[in-house]
Amino acid sequence: MGRVLVTLTAAAAVVACSVATVAVRRRMKGKRKWKKVVGILRDLEEACETPLGRLRQMVDAIAVEMQAGLVSEGGSKLKMLLTFVDDLPNGSETGTYYALHLGGSYFRIIRVHLGGQRSTLEVQDVERHSIPTSLMNSTSEVLFDFLASSLQMFIEKEVFNLSQPVKRELAFTFSFPVKQTSISSGVLIKWTKGFAISEMAGEDIAECLQGALNKRGLDIRVAALVNDTVGALSFGHFHDPDTIAAVVFGTGSNACYLERTDAIIKCQNPRTTSGSMVVNMEWGNFWSSRLPRTSYDLELDAESMNSNDMGFEKMIGGMYLGDIVRRVILRMSQESDIFGPISSILSTPFVLRTNSVSAMHEDDTPELLEVARILNDLGVAEVALKVRKLVVKICDVVTRRAARLAAAGIAGILKKVGRDGSGGGRRSDKQIMRRTVVAVEGGLYLNYRMFREYMDEALRDILGEDVAQHVVIKAMEDGSSIGSALLLASSQSVQTIQSL
Ligand code: ADP
Ligand code: MG
User: pTM of the full predicted structure?
Assistant: First the structure.
Protein backbone atom coordinates (compact mmCIF):
# COMPACT_ATOMS: atom_id res chain seq x y z
CA MET A 1 0.00 0.00 0.00
CA GLY A 2 2.77 2.45 1.07
CA ARG A 3 4.83 1.54 -2.02
CA VAL A 4 1.89 2.19 -4.32
CA LEU A 5 1.46 5.67 -2.83
CA VAL A 6 5.16 6.48 -3.31
CA THR A 7 4.99 5.32 -6.96
CA LEU A 8 1.89 7.41 -7.59
CA THR A 9 3.46 10.48 -6.00
CA ALA A 10 6.58 10.05 -8.12
CA ALA A 11 4.48 9.67 -11.28
CA ALA A 12 2.49 12.82 -10.42
CA ALA A 13 5.74 14.71 -9.90
CA VAL A 14 6.98 13.60 -13.34
CA VAL A 15 3.69 14.71 -14.95
CA ALA A 16 3.76 18.07 -13.15
CA CYS A 17 7.33 18.54 -14.22
CA SER A 18 6.61 17.87 -17.89
CA VAL A 19 3.48 20.11 -17.79
CA ALA A 20 5.66 22.89 -16.41
CA THR A 21 8.24 22.27 -19.15
CA VAL A 22 5.52 22.44 -21.81
CA ALA A 23 4.19 25.67 -20.27
CA VAL A 24 7.68 27.20 -20.21
CA ARG A 25 8.34 26.11 -23.79
CA ARG A 26 4.98 27.52 -24.88
CA ARG A 27 5.73 30.80 -23.12
CA MET A 28 9.12 30.98 -24.80
CA LYS A 29 7.57 30.15 -28.14
CA GLY A 30 4.90 32.80 -27.48
CA LYS A 31 7.62 35.32 -26.67
CA ARG A 32 9.50 34.45 -29.85
CA LYS A 33 6.31 34.90 -31.89
CA TRP A 34 5.54 38.19 -30.20
CA LYS A 35 9.09 39.32 -30.93
CA LYS A 36 8.56 38.30 -34.53
CA VAL A 37 5.43 40.46 -34.99
CA VAL A 38 7.03 43.35 -33.16
CA GLY A 39 9.91 42.95 -35.63
CA ILE A 40 7.45 43.14 -38.53
CA LEU A 41 6.00 46.32 -37.04
CA ARG A 42 9.48 47.84 -36.57
CA ASP A 43 10.36 47.04 -40.19
CA LEU A 44 7.13 48.66 -41.32
CA GLU A 45 7.82 51.78 -39.27
CA GLU A 46 11.31 52.03 -40.67
CA ALA A 47 10.18 51.55 -44.26
CA CYS A 48 7.41 54.16 -43.85
CA GLU A 49 9.62 56.81 -42.29
CA THR A 50 9.03 60.32 -43.57
CA PRO A 51 11.45 62.60 -41.73
CA LEU A 52 11.32 66.27 -42.61
CA GLY A 53 14.40 66.04 -44.81
CA ARG A 54 12.79 63.36 -46.91
CA LEU A 55 9.54 65.29 -47.17
CA ARG A 56 11.47 68.33 -48.38
CA GLN A 57 13.08 66.16 -51.06
CA MET A 58 9.58 65.08 -52.10
CA VAL A 59 8.48 68.72 -52.29
CA ASP A 60 11.40 69.50 -54.59
CA ALA A 61 10.76 66.39 -56.68
CA ILE A 62 7.09 67.27 -57.13
CA ALA A 63 7.88 70.84 -58.16
CA VAL A 64 10.50 69.56 -60.64
CA GLU A 65 8.10 66.99 -62.10
CA MET A 66 5.37 69.63 -62.42
CA GLN A 67 7.75 71.76 -64.41
CA ALA A 68 8.75 68.83 -66.63
CA GLY A 69 5.11 67.95 -67.26
CA LEU A 70 4.39 71.53 -68.34
CA VAL A 71 7.29 71.63 -70.77
CA SER A 72 6.37 68.68 -72.94
CA GLU A 73 3.68 66.05 -73.37
CA GLY A 74 4.94 62.90 -71.68
CA GLY A 75 7.81 64.85 -70.11
CA SER A 76 6.88 63.60 -66.66
CA LYS A 77 4.79 61.01 -64.88
CA LEU A 78 2.69 64.03 -63.90
CA LYS A 79 0.46 64.56 -66.90
CA MET A 80 -0.23 68.21 -66.04
CA LEU A 81 -3.38 68.21 -68.15
CA LEU A 82 -4.80 71.38 -69.63
CA THR A 83 -8.36 72.07 -68.55
CA PHE A 84 -9.20 75.12 -70.69
CA VAL A 85 -10.54 76.71 -67.53
CA ASP A 86 -9.13 80.20 -67.30
CA ASP A 87 -11.83 81.99 -65.40
CA LEU A 88 -13.06 80.69 -62.10
CA PRO A 89 -16.46 81.49 -60.59
CA ASN A 90 -16.54 84.60 -58.44
CA GLY A 91 -20.07 84.79 -57.06
CA SER A 92 -21.67 86.88 -59.79
CA GLU A 93 -23.11 83.87 -61.69
CA THR A 94 -26.81 83.40 -62.22
CA GLY A 95 -29.14 80.60 -63.26
CA THR A 96 -29.99 76.99 -62.45
CA TYR A 97 -27.48 74.27 -63.25
CA TYR A 98 -27.04 70.57 -62.72
CA ALA A 99 -23.98 68.45 -62.03
CA LEU A 100 -23.54 64.72 -62.30
CA HIS A 101 -20.41 63.51 -60.57
CA LEU A 102 -18.84 60.11 -61.19
CA GLY A 103 -16.32 59.55 -58.38
CA GLY A 104 -14.35 56.45 -57.45
CA SER A 105 -16.93 55.09 -54.99
CA TYR A 106 -19.97 57.36 -55.34
CA PHE A 107 -21.91 59.21 -57.95
CA ARG A 108 -23.77 62.35 -57.05
CA ILE A 109 -26.38 64.48 -58.72
CA ILE A 110 -27.05 68.04 -57.65
CA ARG A 111 -29.01 71.07 -58.71
CA VAL A 112 -27.89 74.56 -57.77
CA HIS A 113 -29.47 77.94 -58.20
CA LEU A 114 -27.32 81.04 -58.43
CA GLY A 115 -28.68 84.45 -57.74
CA GLY A 116 -25.73 86.63 -58.71
CA GLN A 117 -24.20 86.85 -55.24
CA ARG A 118 -22.20 84.44 -53.12
CA SER A 119 -24.82 84.51 -50.40
CA THR A 120 -27.56 83.52 -52.82
CA LEU A 121 -26.02 80.20 -53.83
CA GLU A 122 -28.68 77.62 -53.21
CA VAL A 123 -27.86 73.93 -53.37
CA GLN A 124 -31.39 72.77 -54.00
CA ASP A 125 -30.99 69.06 -54.21
CA VAL A 126 -28.21 66.56 -53.65
CA GLU A 127 -28.32 62.83 -54.23
CA ARG A 128 -25.45 60.50 -53.46
CA HIS A 129 -25.32 56.79 -54.28
CA SER A 130 -22.66 54.09 -54.12
CA ILE A 131 -21.46 52.99 -57.51
CA PRO A 132 -22.39 49.31 -57.90
CA THR A 133 -19.17 47.28 -58.25
CA SER A 134 -20.60 45.47 -61.26
CA LEU A 135 -20.72 48.79 -63.09
CA MET A 136 -16.98 49.32 -62.74
CA ASN A 137 -16.27 46.36 -65.01
CA SER A 138 -19.26 46.70 -67.30
CA THR A 139 -19.48 48.29 -70.74
CA SER A 140 -19.58 51.94 -71.67
CA GLU A 141 -23.20 51.52 -72.72
CA VAL A 142 -24.23 50.07 -69.37
CA LEU A 143 -22.31 52.69 -67.39
CA PHE A 144 -23.68 55.70 -69.26
CA ASP A 145 -27.21 54.38 -69.43
CA PHE A 146 -27.06 53.87 -65.67
CA LEU A 147 -25.96 57.48 -65.18
CA ALA A 148 -28.63 58.73 -67.61
CA SER A 149 -31.37 56.75 -65.87
CA SER A 150 -30.28 58.06 -62.45
CA LEU A 151 -30.44 61.59 -63.81
CA GLN A 152 -33.84 60.90 -65.31
CA MET A 153 -35.17 59.75 -61.94
CA PHE A 154 -33.66 62.83 -60.27
CA ILE A 155 -35.40 65.11 -62.73
CA GLU A 156 -38.69 63.27 -62.54
CA LYS A 157 -38.70 63.85 -58.79
CA GLU A 158 -38.32 67.60 -59.15
CA VAL A 159 -41.19 69.31 -57.44
CA PHE A 160 -41.22 72.65 -59.20
CA ASN A 161 -43.37 72.99 -62.28
CA LEU A 162 -41.90 74.42 -65.39
CA SER A 163 -44.40 76.50 -67.35
CA GLN A 164 -42.58 75.66 -70.56
CA PRO A 165 -40.02 73.00 -71.37
CA VAL A 166 -36.53 74.15 -70.45
CA LYS A 167 -33.28 72.74 -71.70
CA ARG A 168 -31.27 71.80 -68.69
CA GLU A 169 -27.54 72.53 -68.56
CA LEU A 170 -25.36 69.90 -66.96
CA ALA A 171 -21.75 69.73 -65.82
CA PHE A 172 -20.29 66.24 -65.87
CA THR A 173 -17.81 65.94 -63.03
CA PHE A 174 -15.50 63.11 -63.89
CA SER A 175 -12.84 61.85 -61.48
CA PHE A 176 -10.59 60.03 -63.97
CA PRO A 177 -7.82 61.30 -66.25
CA VAL A 178 -9.16 63.01 -69.34
CA LYS A 179 -7.36 64.82 -72.11
CA GLN A 180 -9.62 67.83 -72.47
CA THR A 181 -10.17 69.23 -75.94
CA SER A 182 -12.33 72.07 -74.68
CA ILE A 183 -14.14 72.94 -71.49
CA SER A 184 -16.97 70.67 -72.60
CA SER A 185 -15.20 67.75 -74.26
CA GLY A 186 -12.33 65.38 -73.69
CA VAL A 187 -11.19 61.81 -74.11
CA LEU A 188 -10.54 59.26 -71.41
CA ILE A 189 -6.82 58.55 -70.99
CA LYS A 190 -7.23 55.54 -68.71
CA TRP A 191 -9.37 54.23 -65.91
CA THR A 192 -8.06 54.22 -62.34
CA LYS A 193 -9.41 53.27 -58.87
CA GLY A 194 -10.59 49.81 -59.87
CA PHE A 195 -12.61 50.84 -62.92
CA ALA A 196 -11.96 48.76 -66.05
CA ILE A 197 -14.25 49.33 -69.00
CA SER A 198 -11.97 48.41 -71.83
CA GLU A 199 -13.52 49.87 -74.93
CA MET A 200 -13.59 53.37 -73.50
CA ALA A 201 -10.03 54.66 -73.57
CA GLY A 202 -9.91 57.35 -76.26
CA GLU A 203 -13.68 57.95 -76.16
CA ASP A 204 -15.14 61.43 -75.66
CA ILE A 205 -16.67 61.23 -72.22
CA ALA A 206 -19.10 64.10 -72.62
CA GLU A 207 -20.34 62.65 -75.92
CA CYS A 208 -20.90 59.26 -74.27
CA LEU A 209 -23.10 60.82 -71.61
CA GLN A 210 -24.86 63.08 -74.10
CA GLY A 211 -25.64 60.04 -76.27
CA ALA A 212 -27.12 58.15 -73.32
CA LEU A 213 -29.26 61.17 -72.33
CA ASN A 214 -30.48 61.61 -75.90
CA LYS A 215 -31.40 57.94 -76.10
CA ARG A 216 -33.68 58.43 -73.14
CA GLY A 217 -35.18 61.52 -74.73
CA LEU A 218 -33.91 63.82 -71.99
CA ASP A 219 -33.53 67.46 -72.95
CA ILE A 220 -30.27 67.98 -71.10
CA ARG A 221 -27.09 69.43 -72.56
CA VAL A 222 -23.74 68.22 -71.25
CA ALA A 223 -22.19 71.67 -71.35
CA ALA A 224 -19.06 71.11 -69.27
CA LEU A 225 -16.74 68.20 -68.59
CA VAL A 226 -14.94 68.90 -65.34
CA ASN A 227 -12.31 67.01 -63.40
CA ASP A 228 -13.39 66.70 -59.76
CA THR A 229 -10.36 68.68 -58.51
CA VAL A 230 -11.27 71.51 -60.90
CA GLY A 231 -14.80 71.47 -59.51
CA ALA A 232 -13.39 71.73 -56.00
CA LEU A 233 -11.14 74.63 -57.04
CA SER A 234 -14.14 76.39 -58.62
CA PHE A 235 -16.15 75.98 -55.44
CA GLY A 236 -13.24 77.24 -53.35
CA HIS A 237 -12.68 80.22 -55.62
CA PHE A 238 -16.37 81.10 -55.66
CA HIS A 239 -16.24 81.57 -51.90
CA ASP A 240 -12.69 82.85 -51.56
CA PRO A 241 -10.71 84.35 -54.47
CA ASP A 242 -7.41 83.55 -52.75
CA THR A 243 -7.99 79.87 -53.56
CA ILE A 244 -5.30 78.80 -56.01
CA ALA A 245 -5.29 75.01 -55.75
CA ALA A 246 -7.56 72.11 -54.87
CA VAL A 247 -6.77 68.62 -53.69
CA VAL A 248 -9.05 65.62 -53.43
CA PHE A 249 -8.41 62.86 -50.90
CA GLY A 250 -11.20 60.38 -51.54
CA THR A 251 -11.12 56.93 -53.08
CA GLY A 252 -8.12 58.19 -55.03
CA SER A 253 -6.15 61.40 -54.86
CA ASN A 254 -5.48 64.23 -57.27
CA ALA A 255 -4.78 67.96 -57.37
CA CYS A 256 -5.13 70.94 -59.67
CA TYR A 257 -3.94 74.52 -59.44
CA LEU A 258 -3.93 77.80 -61.26
CA GLU A 259 -0.85 78.19 -63.46
CA ARG A 260 0.42 81.12 -65.53
CA THR A 261 -0.16 80.37 -69.19
CA ASP A 262 3.37 81.40 -70.10
CA ALA A 263 4.63 78.63 -67.81
CA ILE A 264 2.61 76.03 -69.75
CA ILE A 265 5.27 75.69 -72.39
CA LYS A 266 3.75 72.62 -74.07
CA CYS A 267 0.67 74.66 -74.92
CA GLN A 268 1.60 76.88 -77.85
CA ASN A 269 -1.52 78.98 -77.99
CA PRO A 270 -3.56 78.81 -74.83
CA ARG A 271 -5.65 81.86 -75.82
CA THR A 272 -6.86 82.63 -72.34
CA THR A 273 -8.03 86.05 -71.29
CA SER A 274 -6.92 85.86 -67.69
CA GLY A 275 -3.29 84.89 -68.38
CA SER A 276 -3.66 81.71 -66.37
CA MET A 277 -5.20 78.30 -66.71
CA VAL A 278 -6.16 75.56 -64.30
CA VAL A 279 -3.88 72.55 -64.71
CA ASN A 280 -5.06 69.11 -63.64
CA MET A 281 -1.91 67.51 -62.29
CA GLU A 282 -3.14 63.92 -62.11
CA TRP A 283 -0.77 63.68 -59.16
CA GLY A 284 -1.84 60.14 -58.32
CA ASN A 285 0.70 59.05 -60.89
CA PHE A 286 3.59 60.96 -59.28
CA TRP A 287 6.62 58.82 -58.70
CA SER A 288 10.00 59.29 -57.11
CA SER A 289 12.54 56.73 -55.96
CA ARG A 290 12.59 58.68 -52.69
CA LEU A 291 9.01 57.65 -51.86
CA PRO A 292 9.10 55.40 -48.79
CA ARG A 293 7.85 52.21 -50.41
CA THR A 294 7.39 48.96 -48.51
CA SER A 295 7.08 45.34 -49.60
CA TYR A 296 3.32 45.70 -48.97
CA ASP A 297 3.11 48.52 -51.50
CA LEU A 298 5.01 46.40 -54.01
CA GLU A 299 2.63 43.48 -53.53
CA LEU A 300 -0.44 45.71 -53.70
CA ASP A 301 0.84 47.28 -56.90
CA ALA A 302 1.75 43.95 -58.51
CA GLU A 303 -1.72 42.54 -57.81
CA SER A 304 -3.58 45.66 -58.90
CA MET A 305 -5.36 46.17 -62.23
CA ASN A 306 -3.01 49.04 -63.04
CA SER A 307 0.41 47.91 -61.83
CA ASN A 308 3.34 50.29 -62.31
CA ASP A 309 0.82 53.08 -62.46
CA MET A 310 -0.61 55.58 -59.95
CA GLY A 311 2.18 54.91 -57.43
CA PHE A 312 1.46 58.01 -55.32
CA GLU A 313 -2.29 57.35 -55.26
CA LYS A 314 -1.64 53.83 -54.03
CA MET A 315 0.13 55.28 -50.98
CA ILE A 316 -2.37 58.00 -50.12
CA GLY A 317 -5.74 57.11 -51.66
CA GLY A 318 -8.63 55.93 -49.51
CA MET A 319 -9.09 52.92 -51.75
CA TYR A 320 -5.66 51.60 -50.81
CA LEU A 321 -4.84 52.47 -47.18
CA GLY A 322 -7.11 49.73 -45.83
CA ASP A 323 -5.51 47.18 -48.08
CA ILE A 324 -1.99 48.10 -46.99
CA VAL A 325 -3.04 47.66 -43.35
CA ARG A 326 -4.68 44.33 -44.23
CA ARG A 327 -1.50 43.09 -45.86
CA VAL A 328 0.57 43.88 -42.77
CA ILE A 329 -1.89 42.08 -40.47
CA LEU A 330 -1.96 39.13 -42.85
CA ARG A 331 1.86 38.93 -42.87
CA MET A 332 1.87 38.95 -39.08
CA SER A 333 -0.77 36.26 -38.92
CA GLN A 334 1.19 34.12 -41.39
CA GLU A 335 4.39 34.42 -39.37
CA SER A 336 2.93 33.84 -35.93
CA ASP A 337 -0.32 32.62 -34.49
CA ILE A 338 -1.10 35.69 -32.41
CA PHE A 339 -4.10 36.28 -34.68
CA GLY A 340 -5.18 32.63 -34.40
CA PRO A 341 -5.56 30.46 -37.50
CA ILE A 342 -5.05 32.36 -40.76
CA SER A 343 -8.39 33.84 -41.72
CA SER A 344 -9.51 33.36 -45.31
CA ILE A 345 -11.45 36.64 -45.06
CA LEU A 346 -8.26 38.47 -44.14
CA SER A 347 -6.64 37.00 -47.25
CA THR A 348 -9.22 38.71 -49.49
CA PRO A 349 -7.96 41.87 -51.20
CA PHE A 350 -9.71 45.12 -50.24
CA VAL A 351 -11.84 43.44 -47.59
CA LEU A 352 -10.55 45.91 -45.01
CA ARG A 353 -11.79 49.36 -45.96
CA THR A 354 -10.20 52.62 -44.98
CA ASN A 355 -13.24 53.72 -42.99
CA SER A 356 -12.59 50.67 -40.78
CA VAL A 357 -8.95 51.73 -40.49
CA SER A 358 -10.01 55.14 -39.17
CA ALA A 359 -12.55 53.52 -36.86
CA MET A 360 -9.80 51.32 -35.37
CA HIS A 361 -7.26 54.13 -35.29
CA GLU A 362 -9.62 56.45 -33.47
CA ASP A 363 -11.08 53.80 -31.15
CA ASP A 364 -10.96 55.44 -27.72
CA THR A 365 -12.46 52.63 -25.67
CA PRO A 366 -9.96 51.29 -23.10
CA GLU A 367 -10.48 47.72 -24.32
CA LEU A 368 -10.33 48.72 -28.01
CA LEU A 369 -13.72 47.20 -28.60
CA GLU A 370 -14.10 48.67 -32.08
CA VAL A 371 -10.78 47.10 -33.09
CA ALA A 372 -11.99 43.77 -31.71
CA ARG A 373 -15.26 44.08 -33.61
CA ILE A 374 -13.59 44.88 -36.93
CA LEU A 375 -11.01 42.11 -36.50
CA ASN A 376 -13.86 39.76 -35.72
CA ASP A 377 -15.52 40.76 -39.01
CA LEU A 378 -12.25 39.85 -40.70
CA GLY A 379 -12.40 36.37 -39.21
CA VAL A 380 -9.93 37.15 -36.42
CA ALA A 381 -11.71 36.49 -33.15
CA GLU A 382 -10.68 37.13 -29.57
CA VAL A 383 -7.22 38.58 -29.81
CA ALA A 384 -5.45 39.90 -26.73
CA LEU A 385 -5.53 43.63 -25.97
CA LYS A 386 -1.83 43.97 -26.75
CA VAL A 387 -2.50 42.55 -30.24
CA ARG A 388 -5.32 45.04 -30.76
CA LYS A 389 -2.91 47.79 -29.77
CA LEU A 390 -0.50 46.49 -32.35
CA VAL A 391 -3.23 46.77 -35.03
CA VAL A 392 -3.89 50.39 -34.02
CA LYS A 393 -0.19 51.07 -34.41
CA ILE A 394 -0.22 49.61 -37.95
CA CYS A 395 -3.13 51.93 -38.85
CA ASP A 396 -1.17 54.83 -37.41
CA VAL A 397 2.00 54.10 -39.36
CA VAL A 398 0.22 53.65 -42.71
CA THR A 399 -2.04 56.70 -42.31
CA ARG A 400 0.72 58.95 -40.97
CA ARG A 401 2.88 58.16 -43.98
CA ALA A 402 -0.03 58.88 -46.33
CA ALA A 403 -0.88 62.17 -44.64
CA ARG A 404 2.72 63.37 -44.60
CA LEU A 405 3.20 62.52 -48.27
CA ALA A 406 -0.06 64.34 -49.01
CA ALA A 407 1.34 67.41 -47.20
CA ALA A 408 4.51 67.20 -49.28
CA GLY A 409 2.32 67.17 -52.39
CA ILE A 410 0.55 70.36 -51.34
CA ALA A 411 3.86 72.01 -50.44
CA GLY A 412 5.16 70.97 -53.88
CA ILE A 413 2.36 72.94 -55.54
CA LEU A 414 3.01 75.92 -53.31
CA LYS A 415 6.68 75.76 -54.22
CA LYS A 416 5.89 75.61 -57.93
CA VAL A 417 3.74 78.74 -57.75
CA GLY A 418 6.12 80.58 -55.44
CA ARG A 419 3.89 80.47 -52.38
CA ASP A 420 6.10 78.31 -50.17
CA GLY A 421 8.02 81.26 -48.81
CA SER A 422 11.25 80.33 -50.57
CA GLY A 423 10.69 83.51 -52.58
CA GLY A 424 12.88 82.27 -55.39
CA GLY A 425 15.92 82.71 -53.15
CA ARG A 426 15.02 86.24 -52.05
CA ARG A 427 15.32 87.13 -48.41
CA SER A 428 12.25 89.31 -48.05
CA ASP A 429 9.95 86.27 -47.85
CA LYS A 430 7.63 87.65 -45.24
CA GLN A 431 6.76 90.78 -47.19
CA ILE A 432 5.93 88.91 -50.37
CA MET A 433 4.02 86.03 -48.80
CA ARG A 434 0.36 86.31 -49.79
CA ARG A 435 -2.64 84.64 -48.27
CA THR A 436 -3.02 81.33 -50.10
CA VAL A 437 -6.01 79.04 -49.88
CA VAL A 438 -5.99 75.38 -50.87
CA ALA A 439 -9.42 73.78 -51.16
CA VAL A 440 -9.50 70.19 -49.94
CA GLU A 441 -12.26 67.65 -50.25
CA GLY A 442 -12.84 63.91 -50.34
CA GLY A 443 -14.12 61.31 -47.91
CA LEU A 444 -10.69 60.43 -46.58
CA TYR A 445 -9.83 63.98 -45.55
CA LEU A 446 -13.29 64.90 -44.33
CA ASN A 447 -13.93 61.79 -42.25
CA TYR A 448 -10.53 60.70 -40.97
CA ARG A 449 -9.45 63.08 -38.21
CA MET A 450 -6.00 61.55 -37.72
CA PHE A 451 -5.25 61.85 -41.44
CA ARG A 452 -6.19 65.55 -41.29
CA GLU A 453 -4.16 66.19 -38.19
CA TYR A 454 -1.04 64.45 -39.48
CA MET A 455 -1.35 66.27 -42.80
CA ASP A 456 -1.78 69.69 -41.22
CA GLU A 457 1.10 69.07 -38.84
CA ALA A 458 3.44 67.95 -41.64
CA LEU A 459 2.50 70.93 -43.81
CA ARG A 460 3.31 73.30 -40.96
CA ASP A 461 6.63 71.53 -40.40
CA ILE A 462 7.56 71.67 -44.07
CA LEU A 463 6.58 75.32 -44.57
CA GLY A 464 7.64 76.61 -41.17
CA GLU A 465 5.33 78.62 -38.93
CA ASP A 466 6.02 81.98 -40.64
CA VAL A 467 4.85 80.75 -44.02
CA ALA A 468 2.21 78.30 -42.77
CA GLN A 469 0.25 81.15 -41.15
CA HIS A 470 -0.48 82.48 -44.65
CA VAL A 471 -1.65 79.13 -46.00
CA VAL A 472 -5.24 78.12 -45.36
CA ILE A 473 -6.50 74.60 -45.96
CA LYS A 474 -10.24 74.82 -46.51
CA ALA A 475 -12.24 71.62 -46.25
CA MET A 476 -15.41 71.43 -48.29
CA GLU A 477 -18.07 68.82 -48.68
CA ASP A 478 -19.46 68.10 -52.15
CA GLY A 479 -17.25 70.92 -53.40
CA SER A 480 -16.34 69.17 -56.62
CA SER A 481 -19.94 68.57 -57.68
CA ILE A 482 -21.26 72.00 -56.68
CA GLY A 483 -18.13 73.69 -58.04
CA SER A 484 -18.58 72.06 -61.45
CA ALA A 485 -22.07 73.54 -61.71
CA LEU A 486 -20.65 76.93 -60.68
CA LEU A 487 -17.93 76.60 -63.29
CA LEU A 488 -20.52 75.80 -65.93
CA ALA A 489 -22.45 78.91 -64.89
CA SER A 490 -19.37 81.11 -65.17
CA SER A 491 -18.31 79.60 -68.49
CA GLN A 492 -21.67 80.35 -70.09
CA SER A 493 -20.55 83.91 -70.66
CA VAL A 494 -17.13 82.91 -71.94
CA GLN A 495 -16.37 81.62 -75.43
CA THR A 496 -15.29 77.99 -75.45
CA ILE A 497 -11.63 77.80 -76.20
CA GLN A 498 -10.70 75.89 -79.31
CA SER A 499 -8.76 72.71 -78.96
CA LEU A 500 -5.03 72.89 -79.61
P1 ADP B 1 -15.38 59.53 -54.26
O2 ADP B 1 -13.98 59.08 -54.22
O3 ADP B 1 -16.31 58.57 -54.93
O4 ADP B 1 -15.53 60.92 -54.79
P5 ADP B 1 -15.45 60.31 -51.48
O6 ADP B 1 -14.72 61.57 -51.75
O7 ADP B 1 -16.64 60.40 -50.59
O8 ADP B 1 -15.94 59.55 -52.78
O9 ADP B 1 -14.40 59.32 -50.86
C10 ADP B 1 -14.77 58.04 -50.51
C11 ADP B 1 -13.58 57.39 -49.88
O12 ADP B 1 -13.20 58.10 -48.71
C13 ADP B 1 -13.87 55.99 -49.42
O14 ADP B 1 -13.60 55.07 -50.46
C15 ADP B 1 -12.88 55.81 -48.29
O16 ADP B 1 -11.66 55.38 -48.80
C17 ADP B 1 -12.71 57.22 -47.76
N18 ADP B 1 -13.48 57.35 -46.52
C19 ADP B 1 -14.80 57.56 -46.41
N20 ADP B 1 -15.17 57.59 -45.11
C21 ADP B 1 -14.05 57.39 -44.40
C22 ADP B 1 -13.74 57.32 -43.02
N23 ADP B 1 -14.68 57.44 -42.08
N24 ADP B 1 -12.47 57.10 -42.67
C25 ADP B 1 -11.51 56.97 -43.59
N26 ADP B 1 -11.72 57.03 -44.90
C27 ADP B 1 -12.97 57.24 -45.30
MG1 MG C 1 -14.40 62.58 -55.11
Answer: 0.92
